[in-house]
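Our consortium's second objective concerns turning raw sequence data into structural hypotheses that experimental partners can test. To show how far this objective has progressed, the report includes one record in full. It was chosen at random from the queue rather than selected for favorable results. The single chain below, 190 residues long, was entered without modification.
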Amino acid sequence: MGNPVVDSKKFYPFVYLTDFLLQTDHEMLLYQASLSEGETDPRAPVLTNQLINLKDLKTWSVREKIIEIYPHHFSEKLLKIKGGNVLAFYDGKGMDPHSDSVPNNYYPDDPEVAFVPNLSAVYYLNDDYKGGEVCFSTTKYGEPFITVRPQANSCLFFDADLWHWVEPVEAGKRFSCTYFLLVEPRTSLG
């Protein structure tokens, strides 16, 4: 796993890891995503008309890697993890400003009672598109304090309270896989 691609002299409210999955696992997931374009999982929530929530993708390798590496980068205990949905952005699609610290009880893969996540993880399958940057702000409609252009096969962990959005994808297709985590006790990333 590579080092974070950020300036080590600045503090960032996230952990960014490159070369996240084994190359074979990464290539298999990207291949599945490219074949599944446009097939939306009918059990998934209708988030917006801005993205497609791909169905029947085997994202277990991302989930297992998150669980494996978590203790090496965070001091808090990982209690729960939900998600694994692969989102496709293209043709001007992006995502409006939002935070992830809301109940996520609508995921079909987890029959447990809803929980409010306090950490988010996004795995990026590809980087061969134009646009699609992730922007972070301290307020819903504030100016971004940082904009990230994720590399293929990287994973970004960040505080679920952070306001963030995805800029529209101008060319190509952007695939990412989202997870929501509950960790305890809650302190800062580091």
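The partners drew two points from this record. Residues 14-184 form a domain with the Jelly Rolls fold (CATH 2.60.120.620). The first strand starts at residue 14 and ends at 17. Both points have been shared with the crystallography group to help prioritize constructs.
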